[in-house]
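1st attempt posting a full record on here, be nice pls
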Amino acid sequence: MNNLSRLQPVAVWRHFLRLCQIPRASGHEAAVRGALLEWAAKRGLSARSDARGNLVIAKPATAGYENCPGVVLQGHLDMVCQKRGGSAHDFGRDPIRPVLEDGWVRADGTTLGADNGIGVALALAVLEADDLKHPALEVLLTVEEESGMHGAAALGRDAVAGRLLINLDTEEWGEIYIGCAGSVDVVADVPLVFAAAPMGLEPVRIRLDGLAGGHSGIDIHRQRGNAIKLLARFLRESLEKGIDFQLASMRGGTAHNAIARDAEAVLWMSAPSVLRAEAESFLTGLRACLNAEDSGIRIGFEPVPPQEAGNALDLGATRKVLDLLHGLPYGVHRMSEQMPGVVETSNNIGELRLEQGLLHVNMMVRSSDDHLIHALSDKIVACFADSGFEGIRVEGAGAVWTPNPESKLLALARDVYRRAFSSEARIQVIHAGLECGVFGWLWPEMDMISFGPTIRDAHAPTERVEVSSVERTWLFLVGALAAISARDLES
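the predicted structure (as tokens):
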């Protein structure tokens, strides 16, 4: 912590370290919102919170910028909560413990919350500074972004007055984003019949872990293994080889927008030792095709007391569930023709819970094309229907942010970047969802761009942010704010 307090820019890192001390899982942002309202009041800044919990902190324009269009700096208060296996960290109570290592800041065994804590810290540092030049500012900090952009969706048209918006929630320094994917959640809650397992069977728990995981938008093209899919594949192949068992439970993943790093199942079977031998053979073959990031994959077994294992699906229902999970699409569905190297459409199987009486699956479909979002989500619904399963719903989440290459704010930002760093910024769209998609629907006249420092492995316990890129992002941000007075950005 002391090492981090000396990093540059000092104000940005100070705000980030303060955020690390306050638990802020999606839907539980009250404490951090209260702390920021108190902070704003002490600095004499106007601040207000809406019924959903979104926060707006305003600062007047500096001298000479009074007639410039107002600027909204935007980020989200919540973070994805993931931890390494065996960690006792309680995200509802414990602070994040950041560590400085080889030019990067990471957390001790958990997600860091740089997504989007660094963006929030950058905006707060701008509000705090007395020596910057800028138009009238509104810092819009939303809630529940990671769980479905519910905070942004609840905003009213009068939430902010500015019509230039800089989103600080992208994660590759040197790139300016002008578009993003939209998404829907496909959620299944399928009732199933469980019964007592036949005599002569014993329960065993099988656990697959050691995968890298990651962000289901930013990392989906990296071909990382999904623990839910891999465990289902292993169990299905075992059945095909005549190793019979009955499923008592199965679970994996914790968030719709995170690639599942681990999964486990409780089985009733007669010969667990046969399945152990099959697991070794399966892993040998799997390691040959997984990428290096997933080289730590492993499969473990442990006995389960019969009273804890509970009832089970019969063999036919077990096969049906595993066939379904094996057949569900996962990963990149289609690459963009307009933006080479960018994923256009994908699906992530983020959460699985097979428990007594119910199969719950939560999937996130993303695409930069609204038509393809619905085409893929319809295909997934059809997979359940073909298996005879009902109870599937498609829920709206993020909207597509359609790129505007003619954006005046983009032109200004490119000029500022060129002068500051003697190179050209890369103009991109991102496969992850940004709240800009919601804002474009709410405020069609809003001119928007997004940028941020380099963050790796967001939504995974290996999440980290590059220190040097935070300082460059700060210089870019304050340079862009100062340049607005010299440009006509009114539409």
